[in-house]
Structure formats: structure tokens, C-alpha cells
Amino acid sequence: MVVKDDSDNMGEEEKAKDSRTVTSLKIDPTLWKEAKIEAIRQGESLSELVERAVKKELVVLKGKKG
């Protein structure tokens, strides 16, 4: 079996997804369940939904500083 490295053929978004950090956190179970349901509705992974939400919140917080 030959394993081929396709990293040269990956787009920037795909490369970024490969470099994600695995982490854990404590979160309200009801909120987590709502997030999982919404991710399914949006057709995305829970990781993608959480990352998008964190990015949006950081933009808001940075805007309050300036």
C-alpha cells in the first residue's frame, strides 16, 4: 500500500483544519446540546460552529477596547 501526501494539493482552509488544537473545556450541558443541534442544522461540525462563535465574540470584545 502506498500512502500519498496530498498536503501540497490542499487549500489554505483545509491546511488550517489539519492544524487544529485538540482541547477540553467545561460548558453547561444544555448549552452544549443546543450547540450540537445547531451545528447539525447548519450542516457543519460542532468544532466549526464553536470556532466561528469564538471568532465573532473576539471581534466584539476587541471593538469594545477601541
Keywords, please?
66 residues; mainly alpha; 3 helices
Walk me through this protein's architecture.
The protein is mostly helical. It has a domain at 26-66. 62% of the residues lie in helices and 0% in strands. Helix 2 packs across helix 3 (46-65). It is globular and about 40 Å long.
Number of helices: 3
Sheet with the most strands?
none
Order of helices and strands: HHH
What is the rounded distance between the termini?
56 Å
- In which range does the helix fraction lie? 55-70%
Average pLDDT metric: 85
Strand percentage: under 5%
Radius of gyration: 16 Å
Shape: globular
The class by helix and strand makeup works out as: mainly alpha
SSE layout:
Elements: H1 12-18, H2 29-42, H3 46-65
Helix pairs in contact: 2-3
Short description:
Helix content is 62%, strand content 0%. The protein has 66 residues and is mostly helical. It has a domain at 26-66.
